[in-house]
């Protein structure tokens, strides 16, 4: 009985419901969300999230232009992107690329009917404070590398290649000898040109890179203190290196040292000898390709020669057949009975004369 009453009430209610278009239904739902959820927050629902700050600098500029004391729409990359709102002072010590751990509570925002949840940050700290300077340096270096738009250059396909080698001018370095030994037997296919420089001088290295006109540009040095490798992250050096169209090889230090120049190079070796060995292997590979091409060319020439011989044989056979046909035609051609036309002409003249009489 109760169920029947409920069904009757539902039917009556449905009959009284207004008729709406699709757009009106969407607006009704948007207004309901706006009324029920906009500005919803729960300050007792605190959560802690660790991630990487992504667009902090841009949001600081926007807040400064509008004279806000708060940051909006800061992106935190934490296995997905989380949007943060935070007072300026809370995120003041941090920069883009910093790893932070934030504490905050969720806030619901609605814009044009779209619901989004943001985290209202009340506290932030860096769980890797000791590593932060190194992380910031790496972030800055990668940003600089992206700005240079580095490209990859192909190994030169030539039987003999020119190679410019930038190395330390110190007589005790010996890294150039290690590189030459790495070239091995392929050194005879290289026109080598040495550029000894102060390997700790960004200005000298940059000038040598700009002066190079070879097919292959090699920059090598041995190990040393970490501070000595900063020249290979220098902006002017990297810009000059990025503009070269030659095949670029580095052999800078040992495996413990990684520089932006290594990331830009077409091949980065850990030691000078490995840089030379790489060029040797490429030349060996190219020699194999040339030999394969020559063998293929010889095979093609042989096949063309065989086809030419077959064409000549067919041409001779065709000429002989043609001659036989001509002889046969001569033999079957009927002899003409009009070898001496004068008797026929005289008969025609006599007939004409008789007709005129």
- SSE string: HHEHEEEEHEHEHEHEHEHH
The biggest sheet amounts to: 5 strands, mixed, barrel
- Percent of residues in helices: 40-55%
Protein structure class: alpha/beta
Gross CATH architecture of the domain at 151-284? 3-Layer(aba) Sandwich
Number of helices: 10
Low-confidence stretches: none
CATH class of the domain at 151-284: Alpha Beta
CATH homologous superfamily annotation of the domain at 151-284: Response regulator
CATH topology of the domain at 151-284: Rossmann fold
Mean pLDDT across all residues, rounded?
81
Ends distance: 144 Å
What kind of assembly state do the chains in view correspond to? single chain
Overall spatial form: flat
Strand content: 15-25%
Radius of gyration: 45 Å
Got a strand count? Answer: 10
Largest sheet, spatial ordering of strands: 1-2-3-5-4
Task: Give a description of the structure.
InterPro entries: Exonuc_VII_L, Exonuc_VII_lsu_C. Residues 290-317 form a coiled coil. The chain has 357 residues and is an alpha/beta fold. Among the domains are: 31-132, Nucleic acid-binding proteins (OB fold (Dihydrolipoamide Acetyltransferase, E2P)); 151-284, Rossmann fold (3-Layer(aba) Sandwich). The chain is 47% helix and 22% strand. It has 10 helices and 10 strands. The strands form 2 sheets. It has a 5-stranded mixed β-barrel with strand order 1-2-3-5-4. Strands 7-6-8-9-10 form a 5-stranded parallel sheet, with helices on both faces. Helix 5 (175-183) packs parallel to helix 9 (272-332) and helix 6 (202-211) runs parallel beside helix 7 (235-243). The termini are far apart.
